[in-house]
Design a protein that fits this description.
The chain is α/β, with parallel strands linked by helices. The chain is built from ten helices and seven strands. A seven-stranded mixed β-sheet has the order 3-2-1-4-6-5-7, with helices on both faces.
Length: about 300
């Protein structure tokens, strides 16, 4: 199998060389794998690109920092352009939290006929993960599993392998995250998906992704809502509309109760609010049906 191991990197000078050396050490022992290492440097301000080149990796550098989703798009684009053509791509992070020794486990599942393989931290062993990130990952897993109707324990994992066909037929559109979108699109396109347990080491040094736990939690839930909006519009808009209609209906019942028990007619602002909430609720639910029809 001809494999490209792709690594996104942003200011990872301290770890990138060791990660590449470990990859070469592991895959060099497997004669059935012909491999190349690709590093996409996302506008690093340190010597990340130079360190990667010194270890023999092919390096593509962004002129500035674009973020994970755009970097992943570049990785896939570069993978598809490489000559000779590669059969599969392995995506692994540059910080050393995933073990190169487990790359063959992912590739073995590809060889067994799967199109897309996730390295699941929650099926394996996690040395340390901040509580807010762990809860966020669990929430993502539940939402993605519901959307895809496939039990997936770790759709957020950055350790994954997939075939050339997946790379060609599953484009990443979102500018927010590639991890969940790729999983959803893989399942929707009826590709075969599998998970393997992997080891997740404690990060050495400060994370560049989680600077503030509260900020991470807010962004995580915003992404969950975006995913629900884009892939389950009927459920997203239906629940939102139903909540608004219910609030207006309960307010209306309260006004009727006052009228029948006291005979007082009034509360015009409340009446207007009740009617407004119910009418908007119906419109939002209707929009959900239309969005679901368009999605299909």
């Amino acid at each position: 199998m001809n494999v490209v191991v792709s690594i996104p990197a942003y200011n990872e000078e301290a770890t990138i060389a060791a990660v590449i050396r470990n990859i070469k050490l592991v895959l060099g022992k497997h004669r059935n794998y012909s491999y190349r290492v690709l590093v996409v440097d996302d506008g690093s301000t340190d010597r990340t690109a130079e360190a990667a080149k010194n270890e023999g990796a092919a390096v593509h550098s962004h002129p500035k920092n674009y973020g994970l989703a755009e970097t992943f798009r570049t990785e896939v684009d570069q993978f598809l352009k490489m000559k000779p053509q590669a059969d599969a791509m392995v995506h692994i992070d540059a910080d050393g939290q995933y073990k190169a020794e487990e790359i063959p486990s992912l590739l073995k599942r590809i060889e067994e006929g799967n199109d897309f393989v996730l390295g699941s931290r929650f099926k394996g062993h996690i040395e340390r993960m901040p509580l807010v990130k762990k809860l966020g990952n669990k929430a993502f897993a539940k939402v993605i599993s519901q959307i895809t109707r496939t039990r997936i324990s770790d759709p957020q994992s950055g350790f994954r392998a997939f075939t050339r066909e997946v790379a060609e037929k599953v484009p990443i559109i979102s500018s927010h995250t590639y991890t969940q979108e790729q999983v959803i699109r893989v399942v929707k396109n009826k590709f075969r998906i599998a998970e393997v347990p992997v080891y997740f080491a404690e990060r050495k040094g400060k994370s560049r992704l989680i600077r503030n736990p509260l900020e991470y939690a807010i962004k995580a839930w915003i992404n969950i809502l975006r995913i629900m909006r884009d892939y389950e519009p009927l459920k997203f808009f239906g629940l939102t509309g139903a909540a608004m209609f219910a609030a207006g209906f309960i307010l209306g019942l309260r006004l009727l109760y006052f009228y029948f028990t006291t005979g007082i007619v009034g509360h015009i602002p409340s009446i207007i609010l009740s009617v407004l909430l119910m009418s908007i609720g119906v419109q939002v639910i209707t929009f959900g049906f239309l969005a679901d029809m368009m999605k299909r």
